[in-house]
Structures are given as C-alpha cells and as structure tokens.
Specification:
single chain; 146 residues; mainly beta; Jelly Rolls; 6-stranded antiparallel beta sheet; 4-stranded antiparallel beta sheet; 1 helix; 51% strand; globular
Length: 146
C-alpha cells in the first residue's frame, strides 16, 4: 500500500500571512510529472469589507512567461461580509485541461485581496506519472513521517 506522500506532493505555496491589498502569485510549477493538481486556499481573518479571490494561471515557463488564466479554474470570491473568514476553497485541475499544444505546462495560483487579510495556499501534485510524488516536493518540505 502506498503512503499518501507517495501519491501527493507539495509543489508550491503562498505562505500563510497577513497580506496587504494586492495580488500574490505562487511559484509556477511544471505539471509534466502529475496527472492532476489541487490548489487549496486557506482564508484566515478577512479585513473589514475584505475579499479574497483566487485563480489558476498557466504559462510557458517557470518564470511565468505568457501567463494567462486557466478557464474556469477560479474560486467564488470569499468575502468578510458573507462571514467567510476561516474558510477554505479547492480548485481541481487535470493537467490535460491546460493549453499544452500552445506550450502551457506551468501552473501557479494567484490570490488577490482588496484589504489586508490573512490567507495562504498550497498547490499539490496528485497522481504522479512516475516514482513517488514526494520526489517533487518543494525544498522547504523538511520532513515526511511515515
């Protein structure tokens, strides 16, 4: 039986913090080693009248060249008015949903807030094409306990 860490890798993050009103983008990750990705947004305390929006971006390089939104891969905006502080949202992506023919094989998560708010996010690689998924973990993953 495989361990979960052999099936799912931590590919990119937006570390949890109180972010000023702006947009923040995770690293662009190469999707070639996975059949699917899952982005999870963690909204903490949203500022007064705060909102948090998130969407997946696709690009042709790890530096974000030619970045465009992945159609249909965005969350419904979380709002402080709707008491959506301390909530989570998930975006699923099959890697064949990218414009691979156009050279788009890199993905990042972009989060935008309108006032200072607490949030974070992670992009997970799911169902590796070869080897254990953990071979692709971020360098900042310091330990896997079995």
């Amino acid at each position: 039986m495989q361990l979960p860490s052999e099936q799912v890798a931590i590919l990119a993050t937006i570390d949890p913090d109180a972010y000023a009103a702006s947009s923040y983008t995770s690293d662009y990750v190469d999707t070639e080693n996975f059949h699917q990705l899952m982005a999870i947004v963690f909204a903490g305390t949203l500022g007064t009248s705060g909102t948090v929006a998130a969407k997946l971006m696709q690009a042709t390089s790890s530096t974000g060249a030619g970045a465009v939104t992945v159609a249909g891969k965005n969350i419904t905006t979380l709002t402080q008015a709707a008491t959506q502080s301390d909530m989570q949202a998930v975006i699923n992506l099959k890697t064949d949903e990218l414009n691979v023919a156009g050279g788009f094989k890199f993905v990042a998560l972009k989060i935008t807030s309108v006032v200072t708010s607490d949030y974070g996010a992670v992009i997970l690689g799911v169902n590796p094409r070869t080897g254990p998924a953990s071979n692709n973990d971020l360098a900042s993953v310091v330990e896997i306990v079995s």
